[in-house]
Q: What sequence folds into this?
């Protein structure tokens, strides 16, 4: 077991709590009353090694730019919410009592009336007591910590709360005000000493250099032709068959900056039904199917952009019983395409939280690449933040305009998992 994982497990039955506390390794070791000799072993070389493993500097509290929002299941559809920042004292951090989870996933809202989404999210932001606590905590932190600009969201539930659309204050949305990054607890398949050892979130500036390799379903989705035109500026390798795409991708040895997928996305109650591909069921690939591939090139640093319905959604795998069997720390690990690519080594993954209209998916893709071309030095997570801000501004300018409303809603359905500081460097 690596030393960071050991500390995390000693600190809390919930390993990712260590992220939230943002304490130095010295303090963590003191808190655990480990012997002085071990403290003295934390040489500069060891600190460097720990930082590399943990992805964040451990020579003090977390950088003031970062705060953390944790959400976890409690019991009977209740959730617990924690907010943390390294500059705050214990009493200034936010911990909620167990509360019923709000039923405001995009999937639930869209089955009622998609156009009511902005109103529903505003009501939730203004009326739900726990949402108000989160808003108040974040706004006070923005006033106190002027360089606070990143929020890492570790939502370990399957309630699919659209946190990015929380309205901090009037017409100021969380995912447009801060660079929001999702992260999941993903078991490390290489750690056989600790079967519940987790993959660490890396938070370091990383340039993902290389070419674009893309699968485009132009047969079913006419608007994907527009995305093809956008991509051709970057001289990509393009496939129109999903199985050939993944077969060849598995053999790639060169550097790939971006894996881009524009296709149908399918999601149902069973993980085996989470698929990417075409209307023709023979031309679909599931999360299960992907596990047969190695995709070794991901370890060099790549971003995955899945411009497909439901591609960022996760669900618990009840068939394989992928959970922590310890009755004290027992927990589930939601799985999906995003966690698969992160497990393989992708720096970051873009996916969607619901069905996205083909027309608007193409617009959002175009906006993404235009924003990248305008400033290639932006992180991928920052590009998404900027897209949300622009869509929110257009919506606020004319709220009765259906085009503005739909683009606003669909843009907020796109979320980013992974390293908040990963950047594209397209060949």
A:
């Amino acid at each position: 077991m690596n030393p960071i994982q050991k500390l995390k497990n000693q600190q809390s039955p919930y390993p990712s709590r260590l992220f939230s506390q943002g304490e130095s390794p010295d303090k963590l070791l003191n808190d655990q009353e480990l012997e002085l000799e071990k403290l003295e072993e934390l040489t500069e070389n060891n600190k460097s090694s720990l930082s590399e493993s943990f992805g964040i500097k451990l020579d003090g509290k977390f950088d003031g730019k970062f705060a953390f929002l944790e959400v976890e299941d409690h019991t009977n559809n209740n959730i617990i919410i924690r907010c943390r920042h390294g500059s705050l004292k214990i009493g200034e951090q936010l911990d909620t009592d167990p509360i019923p989870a709000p039923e405001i996933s995009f999937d639930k809202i869209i089955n009622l009336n998609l156009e009511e989404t902005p109103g529903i999210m505003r009501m939730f932001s203004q009326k739900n007591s726990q949402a108000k606590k989160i808003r108040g905590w974040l706004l006070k932190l923005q006033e106190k910590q002027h360089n606070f600009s990143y929020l890492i969201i570790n939502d370990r539930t399957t309630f699919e709360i659209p946190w990015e659309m929380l309205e901090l204050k009037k017409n100021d949305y969380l995912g447009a005000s801060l660079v929001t990054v999702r992260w999941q607890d993903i078991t490390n398949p290489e750690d056989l000493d600790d079967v519940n050892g987790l993959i660490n979130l890396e938070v370091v500036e990383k340039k993902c250099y290389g070419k674009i390799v893309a699968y485009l379903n132009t047969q079913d989705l006419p608007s994907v032709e527009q995305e093809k035109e956008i991509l051709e500026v970057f001289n990509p390798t393009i496939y129109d068959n999903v199985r050939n795409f993944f077969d060849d991708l598995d053999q790639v040895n060169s550097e790939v900056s971006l894996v881009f997928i524009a296709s149908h996305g399918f999601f149902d109650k069973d993980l085996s039904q989470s698929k990417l591909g075409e209307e023709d069921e023979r031309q679909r690939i599931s999360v299960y199917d992907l596990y047969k591939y190695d995709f070794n090139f991901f370890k060099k640093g790549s971003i995955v952009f899945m411009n497909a319905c439901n591609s960022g959604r996760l669900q618990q795998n009840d068939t394989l019983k992928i959970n922590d069997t310890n009755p004290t720390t027992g927990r589930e690990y939601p799985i999906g395409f995003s966690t698969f690519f992160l497990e393989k080594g992708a720096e970051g993954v873009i996916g969607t939280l619901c069905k996205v209209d083909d027309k608007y998916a193409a617009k959002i893709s175009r906006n993404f690449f235009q924003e990248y071309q305008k400033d290639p030095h932006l992180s991928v997570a920052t590009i998404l933040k900027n897209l949300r801000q622009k869509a929110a501004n257009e919506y606020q300018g004319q709220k009765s305009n259906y085009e503005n409303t739909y683009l606003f809603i669909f843009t907020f359905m796109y979320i980013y998992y992974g390293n908040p500081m990963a950047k594209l460097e397209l060949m």
In short: Residues 1-61 have pLDDT under 50 and may be disordered.
